[in-house]
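Lab meeting, item 3. Inverse folding demo.
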């Protein structure tokens, strides 16, 4: 589906190929969001964001060999207009709090239905802070399920 360039674009940084493929499929079908691309290499994130200028960056929180909080900080300094939304399959409230305190535009749990994820990304593209229902439950419980 062809999208006009005024429709907000999304970039994803995630080493989980299945998650990336699912999101690409959903965003490609979306009439009000553009899939701009993805990388499984966190060291390529800054360059990709600089090249593609997305409205939203969906950033996996748990990738080997990367300090995701440091990457989040660097992304926000170099690309302050991009809404960086953390994307995780782990129940780690401490990380969630840290990411949100550092300026993440939201936190989405990977176990959410893709329709919920896409809706939250739409909201993030409009400037809203987003917290998925599962992430909200984790936060309200206040206890890490996985270290």
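The presenter then showed the designed sequence:
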């Amino acid at each position: 589906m062809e999208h006009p360039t005024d429709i907000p674009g999304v970039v994803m940084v995630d080493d989980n190929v299945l998650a990336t493929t699912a999101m690409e499929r959903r965003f490609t079908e979306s009439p009000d969001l553009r899939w701009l691309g993805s990388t499984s290499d966190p060291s390529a994130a800054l360059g990709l964001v600089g090249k593609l200028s997305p409205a939203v960056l969906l950033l996996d929180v748990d990738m080997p060999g990367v300090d995701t909080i440091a990457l989040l900080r660097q992304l926000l300094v170099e690309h302050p207009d991009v809404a960086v939304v953390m994307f995780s399959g782990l129940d780690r409230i401490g990380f969630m709090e840290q990411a949100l305190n550092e300026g993440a535009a939201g936190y989405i749990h990977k176990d959410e239905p893709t329709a919920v994820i896409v809706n939250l990304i739409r909201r993030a593209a409009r400037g809203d802070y987003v917290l998925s229902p599962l992430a909200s439950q984790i936060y309200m419980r206040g206890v890490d399920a996985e270290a």
